[in-house]
């Protein structure tokens, strides 16, 4: 198959990634999908990058953001809440996503096939500074989006599958953010945690410990 034919086929596969539904609602009530999330994560990377003190590969972070959920076009979204409630899903997720990435890699011509799979592997392993930053911004973006529906009406979280877990997640600091030790990311986390606290208080949400 010609290079251009492979690229076109891969672009078709990306549509499957775009339409994957997530638990979170947008401010007006429609359901967020992966394309929206990836778009916002990429922008968040752009917005915080000028304030990072450590040297990072900015282009790699943007590319990693594009690739990080690519397997979900084949596997669907394994939500954080479900993975906490059912730890065995984490192993299932890793296994299915490994198969999906192998399939997606086979669709691309070199050197694109190696680049995409390498970026995905780096993100999943979370050993490099870039991967750690993108991973934490991925979670912070999701937490921020969770608070947008109807000006912070977070009561809808409990309607999600294992949604009670979201109230716990919204109050937890992430150890990796402390490890990254970047003031702008810490400030972002604190602001989003505070927003979650305020919205839960406003909505009179009772947390089950």
CATH class group: Mainly Alpha
Tell me the number of helical segments per DSSP (H or I, 4 or more residues long). 11
What distance lies between the first and last C-alpha atoms, to the nearest angstrom?
56 Å
Order of helices and strands: HEEHHHHHHHHHH
Share of β-strand residues? under 5%
Number of DSSP E strands: 2
Biggest sheet character: 2 strands, antiparallel
The 3D shape can be described as: globular
CATH architecture descriptor: Orthogonal Bundle
Q: Which strand order do you get reading across the main beta sheet? A: 1-2
**Number of structurally distinct domains:** 1
Oligomeric state of the chains in view: single chain
The CATH topology is given as Hypothetical protein af1432
Give the topology:
Layout: H1 3-18, E1 21-25, E2 31-33, H2 34-48, H3 58-67, H4 72-75, H5 80-85, H6 88-107, H7 112-125, H8 129-146, H9 164-169, H10 175-180, H11 183-202
Antiparallel strand pairs: 1-2
């Amino acid at each position: 198959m010609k290079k251009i034919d492979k690229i076109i086929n891969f672009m078709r596969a990306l549509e499957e990634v775009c339409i994957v539904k997530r638990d979170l609602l947008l401010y007006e009530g429609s359901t967020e999908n992966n394309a929206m999330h990836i778009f916002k994560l990429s922008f968040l990377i752009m917005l915080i990058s000028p304030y990072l003190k450590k040297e990072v590969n900015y282009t790699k972070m943007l590319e990693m953001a594009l690739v990080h959920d690519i397997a979900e076009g084949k596997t669907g979204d394994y939500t954080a809440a479900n993975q906490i409630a059912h730890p065995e899903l984490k192993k299932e997720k890793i296994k299915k996503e490994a198969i999906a990435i192998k399939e997606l890699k086979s669709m691309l011509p070199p050197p694109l096939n190696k680049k995409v799979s390498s970026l995905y592997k780096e993100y999943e392993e979370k050993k490099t500074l870039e991967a750690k930053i993108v991973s934490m911004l991925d979670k912070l973006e999701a937490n921020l989006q969770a608070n947008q529906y109807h000006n912070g009406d977070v009561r809808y979280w409990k309607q999600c599958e294992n949604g009670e877990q979201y109230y716990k997640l919204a109050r937890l600091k992430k150890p990796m953010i402390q490890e990254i030790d970047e003031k702008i990311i810490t400030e972002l986390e604190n602001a989003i945690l505070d927003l979650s606290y305020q919205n839960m208080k406003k909505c009179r949400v009772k947390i089950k410990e």
